[in-house]
Amino acid sequence: MVRDENAQLRNLIAGYGDSMRLSDIKALIAVLFVAIMMGTVLQYREHYPWYLSVPVLLSPFMIIYLNLLFSVYPRFPRAGRKRFPIWRNADPGDFDFVADADAELEGLPALCAGLSRILWWKNITLLAANLLSIACLAAAAILLFVVWL
Amino acid sequence: MNKPISNSTQPYRNLIAGYTEAIRASDFKANIAFLFVAFMMGSVLWNYTSFPSYLSVQLVLLPFLIVYFSLFMVLIPRYPKRGAKSFLVARNLTPADFEFVAQSADDIEQLKLTCAVLSDILWWKTQSIRVGFLLSIVCVFLTMILLLYAFFK
C-alpha cells in the first residue's frame, strides 16, 4: 500500500516535470513570436492613428515579455534541494545521501508541493501573457476593420 | 557476460538523469533567449533615433551585450577534467580506451563523481542564465517605466 502511494507520488512528480517542460516550450516560442511581432508593429508606426502612440503600442509587449520571462525563469523547488544539490565544486563525497532511500521517500510529498507551486506560477504567468496576446490581436482586428469601414 | 545492474546504483543513475535533463532544459532556454535578445536588439536599434537624448547607444547596448555574454557562458561546452575518465572526448581514441569506462559503469564512486561534475556544470549554467534573465526582466521593467513617463509627460 505504502509502495503504491510512493509510486503514485513519483508519477505525479513526473507529471509535474512534463507539464513544466511543456509550459517552458510554449513560453519560449511565445517570446520569439512576440519579439518578431514587435519589430513588425513598430516598423509601421507612422501609419497608425494618433491615439496609438509608441508607449501605447509597446506597453502590452512589455507586459507579455515580463510574464513570459517570469514563466521560464529557472527555479528548483526548495524542498528538493537536499536531494538535487546544485553546487559549485561539488565533491563525490557530497553525494552519499543518494544511498539513503528512506529520506528520499519522506521528501516526496514536499517535492510534489514545491513542484506544484512552481507549475502554478508558470501557468499563471503564461496564461496572463497568452490572454493579453489574444486581447491585443482582437483589438488589432477591430481597429483594422474600423479603419477599413 | 553482462554484469547485472545492482539496485544500489539506480538512485545515482536517476540523479544523473535529472541533472542531464536540467542541463538540457537550461541550454534550450538559453538558445531561445539568444534569438529573443537578437530580435529585440534589432527593433531597439532600428528606432534609436526616436529615443530621448540621455539614452546613448552605449547605454542602450550595454545590457544586450551583458545578456549575450551570460547566455554564451550558459552554452559554452564543458567537459571537466575530473570526470574525463568516464566520458572520453579526445582525438585518436582506440577501443581499448573504453575498457575502463565499461568496467567502472557500476562503480558507485564513479557515479558520485559524475553527479559532482554535473552538479558543478548545472551550477554555472543556472547562475549564468539567471543573470541573463534577471537583467532582461529589469530592462523590460525599466522600458515600461520610460514608456509610462513618455506617455504622461
Based on CA inertia axes, which overall geometry of chain B fits? elongated
Helix count from the secondary structure assignment of chain A: 3
Helix content of chain A: over 70%
Structurally, the number of domains of chain B stands at 1
- Please give the count of helices of chain B: 4
Proportion of residues in helical segments of chain B: 55-70%
Write the layout of secondary structure elements.
The complex is a heterodimer of chains A (149) and B (153).
Chain A: H1 2-43, H2 54-72, H3 101-148
Helix pairs in contact in A: 1-2, 1-3, 2-3
Chain B: H1 10-46, H2 57-75, H3 99-103, H4 108-152
Brief overview:
Chain A is mainly α. Chain A contains three helices and no strands. Chain A starts with a helix and ends with a helix.
Keywords for this entry:
heterodimer; A: 149 residues; mainly alpha; 3 helices; elongated; B: 153 residues; 4 helices; 0% strand
